[in-house]
Each structure stands twice: as C-alpha cells, then as structure tokens.
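Troubleshooting log. The previous run stalled partway through. Resubmitting the same two chains, unchanged.
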Amino acid sequence: MASTSSAATLPTRVGAEDAPRRRGALVRYWPQYVAIAPFYVLFLVFGLFPVAYSFYLSFTEWDGASDITFVGLAQYQYLLGDARFWNAVGNTLIIWVGSTVPMLFFALLIAFLLHQNIRFKGAYRIAFFLPNVTSMVAMAIVFGSVFSDSFGLANGLLRGIGLPEVGWLTEGWSIKLTLIIMVIWRWTGYNAIIYLAGLQAIPTELYDAAKVDGASTWRQFVSITVPMLRPVILFTVITSTIGGLSLFTEPQVLLANAGGNENSGGPGEAGMTIVLYQYNQAFTQFDFGYASAIAWALFVLASVFAIINWRLVRDREGLVERRRRRGGEAR
Amino acid sequence: MHPLSRRRLLGLGAAAGAAAATAGLSACTGRTSLSTDPDELVLWLWNRSASPQLLAEAAENIPGTTKRLRADYIGTTFDTKLRTSLAAQSYIPDLTYINSNNALYFPSEDQFLDLGELGASAHEQDFYPWKWSLCRTPTGVLRFYPLDIGPTGFFYRRDIFADAGLPSEPEEVSAAIRTWDEWLELGAKLRRDADVALVQTTTVLFNMFINASAERYFDAQDRPLFDRPGSAVRQAWDLAVRGLETGVVANAASTTDQNAAWVSGSTAGHIEGAWWTQVVKETAPDTAGQWRIAVQPGPPGNSGGSFVALSRTCKDPEAAFALIEWMQSPENQVRSYNDVQLFPSTPASFETGEMDPQSDFFGGQDPLEFFSTAAETVPTTFISTHESKVGAFRTELALVANGAKESEAGWEAAVAEVNRVLEKRGVI
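Second attempt completed without errors. Output:
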C-alpha cells in the first residue's frame, strides 16, 4: 500500500519542483540510474566490447594463444578471394530463400486455420509451437535417423514407392534441402503463433461485412487477412532474414563430423553457412583474425538486406499514401 | 509493521547492485589460479579420461606430498576453454589433460612447464618410445606426459568372413592381408560374394594409412611433404580411392548409417585404435562373440590417446608432477584401464596380469594381448602443429567418394587449397 501511494506522489513532485538542473536530477534520480545500470553494464561487457574487439581483431592475425600481430587489410583481401567463403554465402542465401518463402506461407495458412472456430484449438497451437522449443541436439539425432542414406526413414519411403533414393546428407543440393526442411519444421509454428496474434487484432466487423457482401473464404483471406497483416508479415520477414543469414545450429549439429572434418557442413561443404564458417575458422582452425573478418563481412551483408527491407517498408507506405491522395483527387 | 517505500526499495536494490558489481569487478582483476587454496591443485579433464577412484584418492591427498587434488570435468570445446584461460592469463588450471591434438599447443609451448626439469626423463624407459616422442615439442623440450594410447588393428566379423568362404581366424586373416593389395583383394571378394563392405568411408582408409606411417604431412621443421611425388599422404589418398573403386568402402557418411551398417552386418569391419573395442560393444551388442581383430596391412598405427601438461602458472610443480608420476605408473594405469578402459602407455602394465581383457565380445581372442603387441611396432613419427590446416584433403576425398569429382582433380584441388591456407597462415 505504502509503495503505491509514494509511487503516485512521485510524478506530482517532479512537476512541483520544476528546477531543470541536470546535476541535481542526476543526484536525485541516482537510484533509478543504478536500477537500469545492470543491463548497460552487461551490454558493455558482453555486447559492445566483443563487437569492438572483433573489429580490431579483423585487422590482425591471432591464433588465440600466441601474440597478436597487425596485418592491416590482409584478412579482408583473403576473404574476397576465398572460394570457401563465397560458397558459404551462396549456401546461406539458398537455404534462407528456400526456407523463408514456404515457411511464412505455411505459417500464414496454419494461423488462418487456427483462427477459425475449430475444436482443440489449444492443443493444435501447442503442437505447432513445440518444434521451436525442442532441444536441437535431440532434433539432430532424429533428423539424422530420418535422412541417413541407407537406413533412413525418408529413403525407406522413397524405396517403398519405387522412387530413386536421395543422398540427403551426402550430396550438394540434398544437404541444402534437408537443412531447409529442418528450418521450416522448426520455425513454421513460431511464425504461425505470431500471425495468429496479428489475426486476432483484426476487427471481426470487417469479416462480417465481407460475409454480408457474399465474399468467399479465399476472398476474405486475400482481401482482408493479408492486407491487415502486412506489418506482422514484414516483422516476420525481417526476423527470418536475421535468422536465415545467421543460420548456424542446424548445419552444425546435423553435419557435425560428416565429410571427414569437424564443423565443415558435410561433403563438399555443401551445408556450410557463413556463421558456421566463422565458427569453423575461430574454434577449429583458431584463426581468430579471419573469423572476425568473416563476422564483419556478414555485418555488411546483413546491412544490405536490412536496407532492402527498410526500403520495401518505406515504399509500401509511400504507395498507400500516394493511392490515398490520388483517390482524394478523384473524388 | 515497517512499510517498504519505493525509495527504500530502490535504495536497497542499488546497494545490492553495487555490491554485486564490486564483487564482479574484483573477480575480474586477474586471478591467475583457479583455486586460492594453497594446498589445492586443480586438474582439467574430460569424461572418462581418468579413473574416478584415483581422482578420489588424490582429492584426499596426493601421495608423497601435502597437497590435494581438485578435478574439474570441463566437457565439450575443451581446447577453446583452455586457450581462453591461457590467453587471458587468468583462472588457469595447475594441470591439464590435452587430447591427441597436443601439437595444437606447440606455438604456445612456453605456457607449459618443461617436465624434463622435474625429473620426467627418469621414466622414459617405462613408456612406448613412439608415445614418448610425441610428448616433445619441435624444440625438443618435453612439455607433455603420456596418458593412454590407441594402437590400431583391423576389426572384422568372423561369421561373415566364414560364410563368404574367406579366411576367418585372426591368424589366418592377418596372414592373408600382409599388404594393402591383399587387403583390397580380400575386400573385393567379400563385396562380390556377399555384397558386404570392409570399412565405412574413404576417410577411414586415408586417416589410418597416415596414422600408421612414419612420414605424415610435414617434416620436423614443419615443411610440407604431402605434395612431393610418392608422399605418404598421396599413398593414403590412392589407397582410399582404390578402396572406393573395389567396393571395399561402404560410403556410409552419417553416424546413423555407420552404426546401422555394423549392426546389420552390411559393413563387416573397421580399422581403429584399441578404444574402439568399447565403442563396438555399445554400438552392436547383438554381434557379441562374432568380432575378431587382425593385424592391419603394414605396421599398426596409433589413433587417439592423450597427454597431460603442467601450466606455467602451476602453483606447486613438484607436487603436480608427483601426481602425474603416481597416476601414470604402470600399476595405476592398470586401475585406469579396469575403471574406464584407458589403454595403458606403459608396456609393464600388461605384465601385471590384473587387467580384465573382456575377451567375450571377441570370441575369446584377447584384445589386450593383440593391442599391446601392436603397440610394440607403431612407428615413431612427428605430428606438426599445422596438421589442423590440411582438412581440404578429407573434404576433397569426400567429394571423390560421392562421385562429384575425379580422383586426380580432387587431389589437385586439395593440394592447392591446403597450400593456399598454409600461405595465408604464414607457414609457407
């Protein structure tokens, strides 16, 4: 009780003693500053410092134990001509596009279905979200068993219906396909739940009006659900971009030692992603300078996609604005 | 009742936060040792790398000293954690186990103590000479001390060999596969008559050939040997490719496929170190009694095995070395073997007669006798710190194995890539 009453008096006192002395404010509000300090201290230590340090390291050669030697732009120069790095960039983009498009489509579809008046809604929601909270190590074992070449379920199924077998974990494109399936399986439910939240914010009057006008379910989906969900869809596109470009866990656990080397993304490095390559260089090759350069290259790449995303959002808003204006003129 | 005002609450929170920050900062001011207790030595190790009984005894008192041992199980990414504490020069263990990749630490060898100065040389005669030689850094200083070893042999399924009309008893098989040509011929017959493979991947053949070779990727001055005509690496490559062509290799890339192949008998063998006896028992328990071990073509090699080292900051090197001497004595290596199946690096251990050979799984054949004999003829070799940079050979070999590349193109790409990496890292 006492704390609520004093909380209520706090704002009035701020207004009453209207003395804009900054140092005085710092003295008066030090408990508040201290209260928010832990986050900033942790951020400085575990966020900002490593970022700054990796920038410094990217201009050096360091094996993590010996002395650090400055090499200028040599790491970046090597990076530009490193076929393994560009292979990793290509793999990452293929897996990202290949997984994001179907994943968001399925997520939207699932959310739309879950939003209908069906029974056992809660059970379905939990079921779709479960893959997201499953331990990755357990998942890797299950996926390894399903997609292994000679004794896997997937190839057993293909054999059963008379189709040729696929080297799910041994051949270039199949490895990417397996990783895409893994990403879709893991993240579709997560995105579906976000879409579902967005759906529930759409006023039911719109649907009622559409029904009165005789719109079909498909028409409702295309003309009401999708446009009203645009901000949510953009949000999931952006988070999927971040997740897709920094894809690491799936190839790391699924292809741990496949291809004869640790953390190399399987035969021919077909499942090597940018972050896995960075991890490989830092923690199996102990080439921290080069790993830092890879990290900054990823930063540049991610920035490019962030700008594209941002422009898409801005143009979309501009488009709506222009349309509205044009509509006004016509009227 | 004393009401808790908001200001008071914030004040308390601030005080607690400040206290925590002070504690955190003071901890950061660089404590070199992990333990402040002057009588406690800290050892870093991983699961099943030491006998829990011996560790428990040393935790009471390290024999012959007044010190006690604290054993910290570090778990995964061991090297990363050890290197982190070495790089930061703080929270460094007094002793640390290091896996078969001890060459990784050659460039920073001054982080570890010279064991010769502590009297380690007196024990040289106790150990297999090739293992002792791996304990020396390229500068000739003894900075590592032997733990276990992994002499290799050719594991095979007696029943499958017998059904295919091949020699099946260990002596017969050993006599029939004295050269790799004979081994490939036997494997080709097995593929033709029973459609069974001898090993899982080309990588196994490639690695095991090099593990049994006196010459490896680099010479003792870290100069590359692999690109010379007729190098051991090239021979290993050719053997792996021939294994592929003759159908001796199953091409089972994933662990799941490999385990299933051993359980079902579609792969009837493996070449690996002595520790694989435990692995196969756990992987394919239903095949008990059917496995045998024969001498692989050429000399046996070594796969795996580990070392122990004393950090430069070790608080009591004499006591730490006393611990190592005690734990790695032939008698205590027997206990380590009986507890956690670490294969002894001291020939005298096998003469105690106190080791349980667990020969049931091998139909009465004594794996201890087999591998202790094999360990006698493992060639002495030099493992360069740069061997971590030659992964391209295995990458390209895997591409040849799944048909994406021709052998010669793969070899050339591998040499070019390894040279590129070596050039980048300033080795050549």
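Takeaways: The radius of gyration of chain A is 26 Å. Chain A touches chain B through 49 residues (CB under 8 Å).
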